[in-house]
Every structure is written in C-alpha cells, then in structure tokens.
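User: Hey, quick favor. My workstation is busy. Could you predict this chain's structure for me?
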Amino acid sequence: MAKKVNAFYAQSGGVTAVINASACGVIETARRHKDRIGKVFAGRNGIIGALTEDLIDTGRESEQAIAALRYTPSGAFGSCRFKLKGLEESRAQYERLIEVFKAHDIGYFFYNGGGDSADTCLKISQLGEATGYPIQAIHVPKTVDNDLPVTDNCPGFGSVAKYIAVSTLEATFDVASMSKTSTKVFVLEVMGRHAGWIAAAGAMASTKARELPILVLFPEIPFDRSKFLARVDALVKSHGYCTVVVSEGVKGADGKFLSDQGLRDAFGHAQLGGVAPVIASIVKDGLDLKYHWGVADYLQRAARHIASKTDVAQAYAVGKAAVELALKGRNSVMPAIRRVSDRPYKWKIEVAELKDVANKEKFMPRDFIGEDGFGITERCRRYLAPLITGEDYPPYENGLPAYVRLRNVAVPRKLAGEFRL
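Assistant: No problem, here it is.
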C-alpha cells in the first residue's frame, strides 16, 4: 500500500470560463481516493501560494460548494503570472518549495495552466529528482489561446470560441441594421498572442445558410494594409457593411505587433491590447467609413453563462484524469485530449510527456486559413464546430447566474519567517 500523502492544486495564468471545472475534477476525484490522498490544498494565487506557504484547505468546503465550481467562471483560488526560472538561477525559490512540501506532507502537485505553467510543472518534477524529494507533478491543461501542443484542443478554448462566434454574429446583425445611415464597419478585438484560434471562431458566425460579411485578421498572416482595405471596401460595396475580427497578436510585415505598447508581463511577454482602434483608424484614413470598435477582453474568457458543453466536459475530464495518473505513479505528464472522429464528434484522454509540451506553441495550420488570408477553410470549420457545440447553463437566481464563492480557509503555517518573492 502506497503511503498516504497530501495534494497541492493551483491555478496559473489567465483564467477561463471552465478552469474551475478542472478544479472540481481534481478535488472530487481526490476525495474519492481518501485511502491514497489525504488533504487537498490549493495555492492561493497559484505557485505564489506554495512559495509563501499561503495554502487553502479545500476540505473545509462542502460537497455542494465543490460541485458548484463546475459552473463557476474564473479562478476560485486566485491565479498568478509568475514564472520559475532555472534551478541554478532561482535556487532559493526551489528550496522553499521543498520546505513547504515537506512541512505539509505534499506528494502530489497539480498545476492548472497553459504553456508557461507546463514549464513550471516540468521544473517541479525535475526538482523532485534533483533533491530526492518524492513529488509527482501533473500538468492540468488550460488556455483560451488553444496553443498547447500534443492535445487536440485546450480546455477553456471551446467556451471563448463560442462567446466570440456568438458575439460576432450578434454584432454583425447590429451593424447590418445601422449601415444605411450610420456604422459601416465594426472591429472586434479578441485574444490570441501568436495563434489565431480565437479570431478564427468569429468566422463561424457566417454559414452557407446565413452568409455574413466577416473578415478575420490572424497573427499567422502578416498584416497588409492595402490588401486589407481592398477587402473591406469590396465587402462594404457588396453588402453595405462588414465586421472585422482581429487578434491582439496581429503583426505587420516587419514582425512587430500592431498593438505592442512596449510593456511586458511577468512572463516577459509583450503586453498587448489596443489593436482594434489601430485597425479602425486605418479604415477611417483609408476608406473614410464610419466605424465602431470593441474589445472582448476579460468578457470573452469569463463568459460561463454561454460556455460550450463540450468544453465543460473536457475541463472536468482533464482534472479527473490528472489525479488518476498521479495515483498510477505517473510524473511529469499531462492529460491530453485526442480527437477520435469529427462526425460524430468523439474524443478521449491520452497522456502527453511534459517535455513535449513545455515551452512549445501550436499555431493555426495554413490550410485552416482561407487562401486570401481573411477567413477560414472548411477543414477549420470541421475542427471548430464540435468544440463550440452544446450548452451547459449555470443555475440562475433572480435573473443572474448563481456562481459560488468559496470560503478559502487558510491552512495554519508551519514554517517560521516570511519568504520574499
């Protein structure tokens, strides 16, 4: 019989509409294995909670509260953007993690995040090997950008894609109504640093049965001002209006972000945002058309009220699978989603090695993007369609979703002194 130890779970990076469904999967599955897993601690604000010994006792939450995480958006335990550097560069931080793990008898480490979180998880597993401390590190995939390799898609993406598809559809109907005497072009800015998956979802609003004048600007396609203006001009002349869905990560021919503000986040990434007004001004200067622009921003990744049923199921499944993999003795791995078929849509969970996931990005294949660079192909539609299919509405009270707020009771500290980040 394996020794009974405690588990640590934390959320990292930008949160999603379904990251808490993964937390639910982890915690509920761990509770079903009380013979192997003692307590499940959550890090308050991600890995920072482990470094500062600011742990949350999820055992103080009722079964009903944990179950409610499945339909509650954003990060129930707080997230962070904090990247661990190499072992030699940040030895004090790694030594601190071991101290906290030892003090709280933590043998399982579940880190719920994207590419940088996969890197952190990989380093934790390497830390265990280097120090001889028995820690099993399992990465729980999440990212709205859908840019993790190996897995067919990422939990969190399906719901943001559904939100953008619906928002593009509804906004385009609005513009059509006003185009005769008012707005001719609406520009919607969406997330996506290097990969255009979210922007591509906007094109799903147009179908063969309901063709709409929508064009998409992808990070994978260098922005060409003259070609863009020619396309907008043609759509406005043929339809009277058009909608532009632009990824925040669109670059010019020089490789520079159109929206780079010169700022950097904690991971060293360019702080993007503000490409919509840039595109809108190009439309105004080049075609003298009346426009409006909007930025989906946090709304797109927090919209649990319109989450994809597929996404919710997959988010829960990877959390559940992470615990099951740990109990099987696996380390430095990630539960990945494999598509079995498109029609009917079938998928299953497989196992990916973290060395094949960390510090790698998956971009949109060129054959997913239309030949002119402004739309998506039928192959892309077949890929996206099942990911945005199905509704999983939360319960409502007085007209609003009945989202849960956990008590998040702190675990008593066992180590002396305060650790500075």
